[in-house]
Amino acid sequence: MSKLINQLIHSLTVLPGVGKKTAARMAYYLLEKEKHKGLNLSETLKTCIESIDHCRVCHNLTELPICELCSNTTRDPSTLCIVESPSDLISIEQTRFFKGYYFVLMGRLSPLDNITPKTLPIDLLLKRCQDSSINEIIIATNPTIEGEATAQYLIDLLKQNPQLKLSRLAHGIPMGGEIEYLDTQTIARAMELRTQFEEELI
Contacts by 104-110 with C-beta closer than 8 Å and gap 24+? Predict the structure, then answer.
């Protein structure tokens, strides 16, 4: 095999979920059928890597010193949502429900992966939380062991400010889901976080 092709295949395997066979299919597809798109991809990737950094306010990825979300003065300054990654932020934004601001951790606590509080931008987060206009902080880390540990760590840090309302995303049975097909942890979590049914007064 060509050394250059082998190098390309190896480079593509750095992407999550891409093994050697998938990387090989990608490489040959670009080389055989879409060379111009491959060149455009490489140029775009180079530009992004050289130009994109972290927002000074929320730590999200952006080519601007302060990202467009943080610069948007029409959003609700009283709520701040903490997420693990930019993809989590995008998922919440797509609901069009949350109107506040965000802070992106770019990870979660994981001692096995050598990710500690010193690895995450905790100092920047604490500085962000000092904004007097913030009344509620929503901790929206994922419902994994690492995500829950990160949430608890943040709660312990932020609860020192009694003026802040701390909340956590609810976890449980998804809309349209059927109980018999759910795992036991999801059902247990739904039971734990059950809400009281309030009958409407007629």
Answer: 104/58, 104/59, 104/60, 104/61, 105/59, 105/141, 105/150, 106/54, 106/59, 108/84, 108/141, 108/142, 108/144, 108/146, 108/147, 108/149, 108/150, 109/146, 109/149, 109/150, 109/153, 110/146
- Class level of CATH domain 76-168: alpha beta
Phi, psi at residue 139, to the nearest 5°? -95, 110
Residues of the chain with CATH 3.40.1360.10: 76-168
The pTM (predicted TM-score) of the whole model is: 0.85
**Do 147 and 108 meet the contact criterion of CB atoms below 8 Å apart?**
yes
Mean pLDDT over each residue of the chain, to the nearest integer: 91
Please write the tens of the pLDDT for every residue from 186-197. 888 777 777 666
The whole-number average pLDDT for the span 107-115 is 93
